[in-house]
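lol ok so funny story. i was supposed to be doing the assay writeup but got distracted and ended up predicting the structure for this chain instead. priorities right. anyway since i did it might as well share w the group, maybe its usefull for someone
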Amino acid sequence: MKNALQILEAKGIERIHDAMDLSSLEEVEQWLFGRKQGELTLELRKIGHLSETERKKQGEALHGVKENLEKALLQKKESLERTRMDALAEDDRLDITMDLPRPERGHLHLIPEFIRQVEDVFGRMGFDVAYGPEIEEEELNFDLLNIPSTHPARDMQDTFWMEGEKRKVLRTHTSPVQIRYMQSHKPPFRMVCPGKVYRKDADATHSPVFHQFEGLMIGKDVNLCHLKGVMTAAVKELISPDLTLRFRTGYFPFTEPSLEMDIQWGKGRGEGKWLEVAGCGMVHPQVLRNVNIDPEAWQGFAFGFGVERLLMIKHQIPNIRLFYQGDLRFLKQF
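and the output, tada:
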């Protein structure tokens, strides 16, 4: 006939065997070995009331039951853990044939990306790249470019003058960079100068803050044929080889003769419309004299493109304001 310890061991083994998951097994473990009310814990407390002989005998019996139950618990726990991991492996199996979504990645805004392309295209044609400050001296922004104080570009409707600064202005074009370059380099040379410029002008095709890249080439025999060849090749590579463009006469105080380049709008409501994208011409002799270059020995051409204008044509963007609104629906298209 089984005694109380044997009955407890058998019952404990049975409950361990019947545990269906790790949570149930933990409940059985607490039932057996809980610090306050565990069945085996209570039996251990009873030993203190026995005689020395009975205490030794009962202690050995309890120790054997405890080892058997702990062994059964460990085996069951390992079995349940294997079952859980096998099920997890089956449910969480990686399907190597499944197309996973690509992680979303950022990219450059259209304007700096296009400027990099400009630098690459002209770099392959042997043009240096130069940069200058956006807060410019009046002399470099106007005077040395043959723009007198009575010229409309000096009017407050067009120009942001710096308050508290003596005759300093947010540059209205990147041409001052050309002046700085000619002051520090000896001809022959060729260069482009991209950057941000500022004018008091705002509508669908104008912005008070926009971007230009200008170019300059000075040599002994540089002429309008070189100008048209360089500009046409660059624009067709930057935008499209199928562009329809034209040159027409214009006026700029720093070039003589002066031309303007127009590109025909390709699609949509403005189809067939000509959009002016660049001013250009042969560098005015007075501008060369202003930077100590002899116009009798050297001549060259200069041009200036609006970055946003070219992008509007390339991507058929109807309004220049879209570049600056930060609308991800617009930017993610490119």
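Residues 293 and 315 are 41 Å apart (CA to CA). The chain is about 40% helix and 20% strand.
back to the writeup now i swear
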